[in-house]
Amino acid sequence: MSKHKVIFPQNLIIEAETGATLKELMNREGIEFDFPCGGRGKCGKCKVRISTGAGEPLDEEKRVLTAKEIAEGIRLACLTRVKGDMRVEFLSDKKIGHQILLSGLDRTVAIDPHINKKYLEVDKATVRDMRTDWQRIKDRLAAQGDEYRNAKIRLPVLRAIPGLMNNTGAKMTAVFYNYNNKVRGLENGDTSGRLLGIAFDIGTTTIVGYLVDLYTGKELSVVSTLNPQTQYGADVISRITYASQNPRGLDDLHRAVTGALNSLIGEATKSAGVSRNDIYAITAVGNTCMHHLFVGINPQSVALAPYVPVVSDALQGDPSDFNLEINPAGKVFVLPNIAGFVGADTAAVLLATDFDKSEDIRLVVDIGTNGEIALGNKDRILACSTAAGPAFEGAQITCGMRGATGAIDHVTFGGNLEYSVIGNVEPIGICGSALLDTVAGLVENGLIDERGRFMEPEEVTHPVGKKLKDRLIRYNEKPAFLISGSFDDTGSRPVLVTQKDIRELQLAKGAMATGIKILMKNYGLQAEDIKEVLLAGAFGNYLDPHSACAIGLIPAELEGRIKMIGNAAGAGAKLALLSAAEYRRAEQAARKVEFVELGSDPDFTSVFAESMLFPAQENGSKS
Amino acid sequence: MSKHKVIFPQNLIIEAETGATLKELMNREGIEFDFPCGGRGKCGKCKVRISTGAGEPLDEEKRVLTAKEIAEGIRLACLTRVKGDMRVEFLSDKKIGHQILLSGLDRTVAIDPHINKKYLEVDKATVRDMRTDWQRIKDRLAAQGDEYRNAKIRLPVLRAIPGLMNNTGAKMTAVFYNYNNKVRGLENGDTSGRLLGIAFDIGTTTIVGYLVDLYTGKELSVVSTLNPQTQYGADVISRITYASQNPRGLDDLHRAVTGALNSLIGEATKSAGVSRNDIYAITAVGNTCMHHLFVGINPQSVALAPYVPVVSDALQGDPSDFNLEINPAGKVFVLPNIAGFVGADTAAVLLATDFDKSEDIRLVVDIGTNGEIALGNKDRILACSTAAGPAFEGAQITCGMRGATGAIDHVTFGGNLEYSVIGNVEPIGICGSALLDTVAGLVENGLIDERGRFMEPEEVTHPVGKKLKDRLIRYNEKPAFLISGSFDDTGSRPVLVTQKDIRELQLAKGAMATGIKILMKNYGLQAEDIKEVLLAGAFGNYLDPHSACAIGLIPAELEGRIKMIGNAAGAGAKLALLSAAEYRRAEQAARKVEFVELGSDPDFTSVFAESMLFPAQENGSKS
After folding, report:
1. Within an 8 Å CB–CB cutoff, is residue B257 touching chain A?
2. pLDDT interval class at B25 (50, 70, 90)
């Protein structure tokens, strides 16, 4: 069956087979449109104008449409069938409500990009019509809709007019921000079909970019890179110190991140076979420090009591304000921060999870070098931040590594030990999720005690533990647990977990658990009140929920309610890119959040001390 | 009598003697304020708050003011006398209506600068007040007045906040455009007393700058320079050709003029003892070609039929958009064009002369390389442009020179010839006004005929003419008229007018006279309907009205109604700098003007041929 191109308003181009009705296409693509009589051609309410490719009207259409309407190409969307390429226009000014489903999240969004375009054919001046070039562009725009009346223009765009008026027929495309009447760009010819955007999640360690088509919501490519700021320090505090103590420190860090974004834009557009000039919108999220460094603000105040950011508002700017190389008519949108250590990335997570609209009480935990936790529903949201440290990301762990080829990513304790390796190669180290599994197994099989101390082999009493006893070795004269490989020359490289590694994980999980408990206490909630636990972040997507509960990272009662939602910060950035309304909502959601400063809580020390412990095992031994 | 400093709202600082009442000061300085009872202290309506320097209240004040008002420093302006330095605040939000008189023009303007400032003292964050730095600046601004609520901020200014919050007490001054709530600048400490602007008149040949205090309207210095674009061509057409035919031509011309403006800013601020960083507003006027080159727009369309500019609207931009080096929080305002060859300079002339408000029909003639003419009143304004050529400026004239030292600037024909020389030195050439006088004298004394041809000595019949006959010499074998000096080695260098010079002047005055006549015809006016003839431009200020009428540049009937108004374009630029309302009015005035394209007029050829002739003299001889 042959395929045709059907162009809906806002240049939404849909491939359609011969014979499909427009109603079917709209339903399939999630375009909101009313069919009051259910699509039987009776009510005549689903009128559209077929400006290209209108065929003869059906008898049913002749009954409800006037001759004038028929002559103008008006047809009923429920009855009109695709026979060839078509262009469909709506009779009202309403924006197309084109819904797309966000992968990994059970939610759809109506596409409503920040940038819009208008194609114009402008007459040239004659002795009888001496309007200026800009005046005739303005007049043509005014005829396109009320929102374009009394148009203004940016100075650099005004300068481009003489070049555009010289092309044949003075055909050009005007670029606008949010249906505002200021012309941000004028492009030669008809470029109205090209409108891309890229959403960035700027992590302390990793930056991810999502290139999307702003008409269809389709993801064209996903790219990622190590945050090059790591050369100035692995964690936010060392970067803040660098920014504050070096005369050009702030600039170095700002340029490092924007340079990385420009490289990612190059990579993403190359892989999608498009031009970086087709990109008109960028959204960016990150923790408060990443946010300030990206915007170019000295983040020093974030590191000093009372840990207040310079700015929390959602920010917009031109690409040149951020040294970003996309279409200069485009715009950059930075999502709002919440508090000193609860940044725009958390605002994006709240957006992606519809946290501020939920009836149910939910807990969302974004695990990274810093862990951000939010608890609540549409009525009240509490949030806090914990310095979990890099243990979850495999850093500062003896055999630790990021989740890359060669990393053991999951470990199962049974009669013996089983593990899986990323890329199915010989293991060279372990990543965070496997460290969690290992420690969970050690706890559950009585190989370490509640305080995290390795048992001496003779202390082990757990039946499974006994079988694993041989793996309790000494490494650099200290106790350790061997996962794979051996120390003789014949076998593969040993991968093990040391006492120090366990202490690192204890600190990390203790910090996270403390945050969860203090938020619950402040909210006045028990575990049973929480309907859902959402684990976000790259790490959150890989860890085993049982292991997380076994070590006490998440309260054990919640194990059955854990849901992995992947990179929700990135998904929120994408939402804010596809929908101006969602971007505005992020600001409202962020302002709704009450920040809880954990260190100021009177119970902090005792809760933290208790959270460092592992849960007692019924059949484990006590030291 | 000792002097004190009295500071009125908007930082208007007035020097006042001991004992003067505030009412007297306000009247003297043109500050609009109501004194319903005439200043007798009876009605209690002229309340002001004396925030610094309030003395004990008078008994009359105690009768009309409450104890609370008195405690708050409220006093009556009609009764309060200056005893020392004082700060006076108005109780209503109204802007101060401070009138200044523009020299050379019979009009005053209420000062209302485009840029305003607010001094702020901002609290720092504490554990109990964790608002962000920007939020606390916003909140402090909101308390200053409704116009500052929900303030926005420019990204580069946001980046400056951490540096400002570190200063003692976080004292800063916010800079705004036109009471808009977007912060354009934040400056360390209290800079609210500094607000300067500079108005530029960008002529084809000369650029003039007026540095003024935007609080008082006081002119701090006037600077001028040759337009360095002359290196690319003396007239607008040769510059347009250069811009269009060289790849970097437009940029060369744009940088030439903006570079000159930056130099003039340096010169003006140095001479006034201020900093270029104190300048927050620039206005610029020029003909359409100068306008386009200054804005950075290719002016090619202005030179090609149908001679339409790219843009006529009043334009605003940041200093960096124009490569201008003033305070980056400042703004640049370009006045509107009227038509292809009637530019923003004419719009400024109309503004300066209140042309669009006048009941009387007036004619304004701005004489330069291009001559712009406007005719009309508040009901209808016609305008045209004539390519007068450079003769009026002394260029392309055998002994011609600009009005500088050594130039003969006026010539009187009596029993013999008398002349004055700029700088009272030996003459080295003549400038436009003297050329006009000379030709007028030659016409009136029968030494040239109606067609401009030199008489042979024997043809001269006019009594005065006969005495001057010896000055009719031959130069390069052609007739000429010797004004000063001689050809022998002993005397000073000869200054003379040749037949070719007379032809040049005939073309120039013919073009101007044609414009005046065609406008009068189109308007349906006779000379007697015109109440006033305003001569603008540097040249217009020097020429002798009688000479202008004697050669037929201005209709002879209007001689008694001629008024010199000096550089009215520059005065208009200054008005638009001192008053945002006047700037907006320039746009309205410009749009009101009907442009008359002289070349399209069916009578053009015959009127031009007739206008080239000199008026017939009753007692002169005919050839």
Report:
1. no
2. confident
Mean residue pLDDT across chain B? 90
Per residue in B110-143, pLDDT (tens digit) is: 889 999 999 999 988 888 888 999 999 999 999 8
Cα–Cα nearest to B586, from B342, B367, B349, B319: B349
A429 and A401 Cβ atoms separated by less than 8 Å: yes
Cβ–Cβ of A295/B125 closer than 8 Å? Answer: no
List the single residue in A with minimal CA-CA distance to B150: A313
Q: What angle do CA A238, B156, B151 make, to 5 degrees?
A: 110
Please give the helix or strand (H or E) that residue B590 lies within, else none.
helix B580-592
A476 CB-near residues (< 8 Å, 6+ apart)? A498
Residues near A623 by Cβ (< 8 Å), separated by ≥ 6? A449, A451, A453, A455, A459
Give chain A positions within 8 Å (CB) of B295. Answer: 155, 158-159
What's the rounded Cα separation, in Å, for the pair A378 and A592?
A: 9
Shortest distance, CA B183 to any CA of chain A (angstroms): 14
| Residue B105, pLDDT above cutoff 70 | no
Give, in words, the CATH class of B3-96: alpha beta
CATH dotted code for B197-344: 3.30.420.480
Residues in B 93-132 with any Cβ partner in A closer than 8 A: 125-127, 130-132
A vs B, Cβ pairs < 8 A, gives 117
The domain A354-390+507-612: what is its CATH number? 3.30.420.40
Inform me whether the pLDDT recorded for B620 exceeds 50: no
Distance from CA of B583 to the nearest CA of A (A): 17
3-state secondary structure A126-159: ECCECCCHHHHHHHHHHCCCHHHCCCEECHHHHC
DSSP H or E segment with residue A208:
strand A206-213
Per-domain boundaries in chain B: 3-96, 114-188, 197-344, 355-390+505-612, 393-501
Please check whether residue B81 is in contact with residue B61, taking contact to mean a CB–CB distance below 8 angstroms: no
Range of A538-542, B54-58, B546-550 with top mean pLDDT: B546-550
Amino acid (1-letter code) at residue B483:
I
What does CATH list as the number for B114-188?
A: 3.10.20.880
Work out the pLDDT band at B621, boundaries 50, 70, 90. very low
Which 8-state DSSP code applies to residue A214?
A: T
How many angstroms away from the CA of A234 is the closest CA of chain B?
23
Whether B197-344 and B3-96 are alike in CATH topology: the answer is: no
Q: Rounded to two decimals, what is the model's pTM?
A: 0.82
Contact B155 A310 (CB under 8 A): no
In a mutational test of the A interface, the residue from B126, B158, B593 whose CB has the highest number of chain A CBs within 10 Å is B158
Domain B355-390+505-612 has CATH 3.20.20.70: no
Per-residue tokens: A534: 């959402």
Q: SS in 3 state form for A57-125? A: CCHHHHHHCCHHHHHCCEEECCCCECCCCEEEEECCCCCCCEEEEECCCCEEEEEECCEEEEEEECCCC
**Cα separation values, A78 from A94, A461, A562, B348, Å:** 19, 73, 43, 61
pLDDT, greater one: B14 or A324? A324
Please list the rounded mean pLDDT of every run of 10 residues in chain A (623 residues): 79 82 82 78 85 87 88 89 88 59 66 92 88 94 89 96 82 92 95 95 92 92 92 90 95 97 97 97 97 96 90 96 97 94 95 94 89 96 87 84 87 90 90 93 93 91 86 91 84 89 93 96 96 86 90 94 91 95 95 92 95 78 40
Q: Which of B122, B132, B165, B251 to mutate to test binding with chain A, by most A CBs within 10 Å of its CB?
A: B132
pLDDT of residue A100: 57
